[in-house]
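Example with several molecule types.
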Amino acid sequence: MAIRMGIIGFGYMGKWHLNNAPKVENVSVVAAYDIVPERVQAAEEAGLKGFYNLDEFLKEDINLVLVATPNDVHCELACAAMKAGKNVICEKPVAMSLTEVDRMIATAKENNVLFTVHQNRRWDKDFRIVKEIIETRELGNVYAIHSRLHGTRGAMFGWRAEPEHGGGMIYDWGVHFVDQLMWMLGFDAIKSVFCKTVKVKTPEVEDYFFLLLDLKSGAHIQMEVGTWVLNQLPRWMILGDEGTAYVNDFTRNGGIIKVDETVEPEEIVVMTTSGPTRTFAPRGKKEIINKELPDSPADLTEYYANLRDAIDGKCELIVKPEQVRAVFTVLEAAFESAKTGRQIEL
Amino acid sequence: MAIRMGIIGFGYMGKWHLNNAPKVENVSVVAAYDIVPERVQAAEEAGLKGFYNLDEFLKEDINLVLVATPNDVHCELACAAMKAGKNVICEKPVAMSLTEVDRMIATAKENNVLFTVHQNRRWDKDFRIVKEIIETRELGNVYAIHSRLHGTRGAMFGWRAEPEHGGGMIYDWGVHFVDQLMWMLGFDAIKSVFCKTVKVKTPEVEDYFFLLLDLKSGAHIQMEVGTWVLNQLPRWMILGDEGTAYVNDFTRNGGIIKVDETVEPEEIVVMTTSGPTRTFAPRGKKEIINKELPDSPADLTEYYANLRDAIDGKCELIVKPEQVRAVFTVLEAAFESAKTGRQIEL
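Resulting structure tokens for the full complex:
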């Protein structure tokens, strides 16, 4: 079936989808609805049929609606579209509460339409590299994962700085990074959650969080995202008992480090002002093996192609509603932990 | 009073003290006791009076005993020395349980001698730099501290790999790093503890730990020490609302990064394979201010000089028994957390 897509909310991400979804065969964007007249006009200038009224928009000949508004109206708008028989992509985070998430999932079932969320960062190059490294057991048994994103701008943009619209860093990036890890490690992999949030430069929402995810496997995840961490640590560190991988940014910049056990270790002692250390002395250069990161493919158009084929009943959705719900449960636990100072068991 | 020091346990650290304590005026090392005959001979070759018997050693004309044995006999030996009227320096970690720590503190009081622990890493250059940065409020309000030590050797030396002798990374380095932070931030600063331990390359003790210390101030500490983290992150990261400091190793290698708010921010968008980000785009180079780390003095001989003067009643000990006890309480909470998977409230 040809996908005729309509966009609700023709802002930053709405335009992004207009530029990307049609890269896939049999997917076109035909209409847009917004409450801001200038945006409706911008949509019309971009060749779409513009709507100032939701009901009129939903009567249009479209079979997929993308909801790209602030988070606080995702549920209401997605449900309206599903009740009108449209399949729905919702931008992340899916909603403002688990109650809303459940309402959206139920509405999809009742109206026999597909419902998915734009967890686009499952297609980030850096993440695909990490996923390949872990799945091929390149590092043996992985005992810890660092997932970090450090920025210097000290700013959350627009409504992302406003709590009433679902702003804050946990909803903005936490939702992606938790989704990446759960998709890779299993949606039931997390045992407990501890979270610290800070409003460093943004008065009303957290623009920094540290999230510790303790896994049932015994491994753990250190996740740290902040817009005001001026010395950036690598985006990823993967600690395995056969080696360490690091990915510095969103690209293939990084490496895998192993030790050549066949080389006799050099005896080195490091002096500090307060004493020596043998344990933390470096190895000789000959003992270290540096490998390139795998060049894992990462093609976001797969997202739209999958949805198109799922609508045709040819395959399952990659981003499934129950996965979205599982991720949201972790985010709610993170907020609860940050508020109470307590570890939350899942 | 001239300090005449005797060493119990003439191993790696015993020799270290012999080489360092006499750098201070009025401190000399005169005797050593060990249960290993070769070590007694080594002590004699180094010019000390060697003892094969503890009672004989304690009858010697010494007024300070250094206990540098494996951890499991610290309490017994330190108490024997104090009962013989000697002041005592014990190597870290002080003991194997809080019960032992309390016995040692009580024995010091009963015998009216001084008791201290060799928390030498209070004199590490890197730590002194961090302490100065925090105390001068160079970074404004500090909301997170990373204290890390990553090694590549995958080894704990000698008895440090043996649980029955008090081995493991929490006792070996955790005790230093917790002591550093509590001395700097306050011995009652910590609210709760969460800890993960891993036996990556050492069969019987943890050679990796991650310790999350949640502070009453609202800030938190991420502490990670491992002998098998092949891509080393900086020893310290200090995240403040006016800037970030990083110290790469045990030296002054690192910097302070701030932002020049008078420069108009460049508009930059970073593309990733799955979408753009404005929030995590870098700043223009003109906006960034790079500063050198302060050159904070760090002189370990202060440790011995302080003890000498404290024995003379001229000053208080820098490393006080009740501080040692507070640090040990945190270590016990860390072990309990690692064992149970639960956050421990202090």
